[in-house]
Prior knowledge:
Strand order of the largest sheet: 16-15-17-18-23-22-21-19-20
Strand content: 35-45%
Amino acid sequence: MTTNTILLLLLSLVIAGGLSYFQYFFKAKNKSNVIWFLAFLRFLAIFGLLLLLINPIMTKNSLEITKTPLAIAVDNSSSISVLKSDKKVTELYQKLISNPALKEKFEIQSYQFDANFKPSDKFDFKGKQTNLDEVAKNLKSINKNLIFPTVIITDGNQTTGNDYVYRFDPVNKVYPLVVGDTTTFLDLKINQLNVNKYAFHKNKFPVEVFLQYSGDKTTNADFTISQGSTIVAREKVSFSPSKKTATLDLLLPADKVGLQVYKASISSNVKEKNSYNNIKNFAVEVIDQKSTIAIVSSINHPDIAALKRSIEVNAQRKVILVKPNDISQLQDVSVLVLYQPTTAFKAIFDNNKLAGTNTFIITGSNTDFNFLNQKQNSLEFKMSGQIEDYLSEFQSQFNLFAIDNIGFESFPPLQNLFGTVTTKGNVSVLLSSKIRNVSTNAPLLAFAENQGKRTAFLLGENSWKWRLQSHIDNQSFEKYDVFVDKVIQYLASTTSKKSLVVTHESFYNSGEAIVINAQYFNKNYEFDEKARLTITVTNAETKEAKNYDLLKGNNSFSVNLDGLSTGKYNFTVKELNTNTSYSSHFEILDFDIEKQFVNPDVTKLKQLALQTNGKAFFEDQADNLINTLLENKEYKSIEKNISTKTPLIDWVWLLILIAVLLTTEWFVRKYNGLL
Length: 675
């Protein structure tokens, strides 16, 4: 309190006393006890009002003790139960939080983690995943800028997230409390299996398998991949104390169309403690993309043979050669290659207006350009009768599909009639033309799209020379054939728009998030935010059906189907306002990643302790852990002097007291007839 405030308070005492004296004693004849009482009430009331006007700042000092946080994070994943350590974990946790010395020294914080991290003091050990990275990330945020120890009661077997060893703050010590049997058992394990989700029918698809062995003896194992009761692949594998891993690369035939489920397994003649990790189910969606490409020509030319060979390198493509007047063979064709069209092609162009088949038009010296101008409106040709050689120039800004420059500038020139070619509408140019190194700014290979129909134009003949030149440059036809395949793939793709588009996988592993996304579009193909989407999911075996609503997100609707048991499911997504629906199926494969472990990962937990200057303890060393925490002098309670300043005007009770004093004075004066 400042000197000025003290002087004002003294002045207030004088003023309050003077006014009270003047009110009740100056020229007063009667100085009874009542007068003294009234004068005292008036003195207090006036002094209180003056105090409020002065409004001195009242300072209060208090001591506060801040303890160091002790974070105890408990592994709540199902691997703890699999290792039969759930009771031990609960026992260790209770031992730590109930220790009087730890409670006195630390502010104990209790957490649980599996796939997520949250405060908790009760554990059910049913988590489907283990993410120790979440522990590191959240503790950094919760105890920001603090030095504190962390105790993690876990088996150290992480199944998701970043590698946790280097994710914890190295300034703060971590003390892993390792649970689970550390005895080494013989264990064969399919550690990882890599396979593409999709394969083409009648092709072979690769399967990469990583096998792992734990044990101290030489062991021979039998690895098989089966589909139903049929074994489709078998390999013999040997392990020893010096060879604990093996990698297998297998090719499986894609003989059947649709979702194909396989079972990979490894076994030996020795009984294992955990045989669950000897089996891994996987699935592949086999797609039949067999498409027919029709090359229509009225002349014979080497280009046709070269184009046929390039297209049929892809086993999913079949090429047929057709004359212009043979329309009956074009019903189930994916792409029409019209080689040097003339008026003889009139029936094909007319029929294709209704069929809407994508076309690849190749021109040359025999092309009727006046006829071509009448039958398409993407390019306009003004050609002379003179033949010209056109070199190619790659346009790097082309973005309709991914394509590399395979040396187009070094390819021999194509021959076409001399003239001008003008693009009209939406045309993308992949190769432009040059005449003796002078750019014409005219297209040589271009793509157009009009009302969902795609057309490609190659303006010149003798492209068979391109294929030969590519082989000379690369000792292989592969690069050129891939280029042709991408052109055909672009033309073979359909661009039809659906009002209800549903995105989902054909199979999921149990424990994974099963999310199905959907979009609904109105007649203008605009995303409809007011759509009402529901999904009905039916178990194919039990016929049990469940209904869910899809929730709107950013430009899509989604539903989470977590909790479904393994098996095959059929589902239907329906838009309730229009009854538009989409039906499909998926399968949930039996795979619990938390059951893959036989022992705790002691090595990584020790690395974590070393990285943070902590120490790893085993489940029978809990007392040693407690003593280590108590003896560590880094963790001391901090005593703080808390100074609280409060203006007197904030004291509500003072206002009430002044009101009571004035009221009492009035009643006493009234009662004694002094008013």
